[in-house]
């Protein structure tokens, strides 16, 4: 029985005894006291539960990534829509992005990223217990995780997808870490991958300039070390209209859906509202995750944000009191790769020697849903020789 149920059983059991053995005049006063005591006990239990969002025994021990070969530059986009390299770079920090070719699949780049992460961690794929793929744009509506697991040779792993838009990798990282911390599994591969080039309106300069395709993966192991130091996850469906990719067509699409008529509208975004949301909520959720970890911004070696917009990253760093040279970014080369952005940027930082074993990294994702969250990790991968 959980502590919360034990508390309730004792308190309400005591209340029942009071009803039987005391005069009616005293029952109400006693029961009010009991209710107050119960409320305080529940509040205390909630505080205990909050503290559990810390110190998960899951260590990130390997990293890998993969991006399509095809590059679309800002100048290329200027030939398609009314924009320019200067206009895009100043407002977003993006210079180019990678886009899947017609003969490339999301599952393939996700599997390549996962295989590279396993190689980096020196882990045999057959020993992997769990594969989680965070994506909003799978090749198969039913998900790509099983295809990825098969492709990398993780024949003994359970595999499933998580859909949480640009927060997807962060949510998947915490989910995988919980499985390891519980003792259910020992080794997991967590992949973030998206191909939003499939879903943007290439005539809309407000969105087509932002998104790119890519995948990144992290290998997690339960090594007994609590290397996920703390986390905090949030969502708010009341504001989901600010960033959506809704199903287009009949109000009841399932009734008349067919392969030939089914489809989705392009991504729609209220950039001003998304900016306000990100700069308001992301610093707050990072501070909450740091608090759960028992540390502060001064203890962070690196800040790794979802690679959405340079202005958002600058504002978040400023509100945390961190210099921008502590921010890990590859936004200029890849654009916004949704669930792929955090592991893509981390891979580049690890492989360049920027991130070293033992470094503390504050990671945060945010995006459609609306969803957002942060996780504080200690990097435990192999040292990279210069």
Key phrases:
5-stranded mixed β-sheet; 14 strands; disordered N terminus; alpha+beta; beta-ketoacyl-[acyl-carrier-protein] synthase III; 386 residues; Peroxisomal Thiolase, Chain A, domain 1; 2 domains; 20% strand; globular
List the helices and strands and how they pair.
Layout: H1 3-21, H2 24-51, E1 54-56, E2 59-66, E3 71-73, H3 74-78, H4 85-92, E4 96-98, H5 106-121, E5 130-134, H6 145-152, E6 158-162, H7 168-181, E7 187-195, H8 205-208, E8 213-221, E9 228-235, E10 243-244, H9 253-256, E11 268-269, H10 271-293, E12 302-305, H11 310-319, H12 331-334, H13 341-351, E13 360-367, E14 371-378
Helix pairs in contact: 1-2, 5-6, 10-11
Note down, in words, how this protein is organized:
The protein contains 13 helices and 14 strands. Mean pLDDT is 84; it is low at 1-26 and 256-261. Helix 1 (3-21) packs antiparallel against helix 2 (24-51). A hairpin with a 3-residue loop joins strand 13 (360-367) and strand 14 (371-378). A five-stranded mixed β-sheet has the order 1-9-14-13-12, sandwiched between helices. Strands 2-8-7-5-6 form a five-stranded mixed β-sheet, sandwiched between helices. The N and C termini lie far apart (53 Å). The protein folds into two domains: 3-51; 54-378, Peroxisomal Thiolase, Chain A, domain 1 (3-Layer(aba) Sandwich). The chain has 386 residues and is α+β, with helices and mostly antiparallel strands. Pathway: Lipid metabolism; fatty acid biosynthesis. Keywords: Fatty acid biosynthesis, Fatty acid metabolism, Lipid biosynthesis, Lipid metabolism, Signal, Transferase. Residues 160-237 form the Beta-ketoacyl-[acyl-carrier-protein] synthase III N-terminal domain. GO terms for molecular function: 3-oxoacyl-[acyl-carrier-protein] synthase activity; beta-ketoacyl-acyl-carrier-protein synthase III activity.
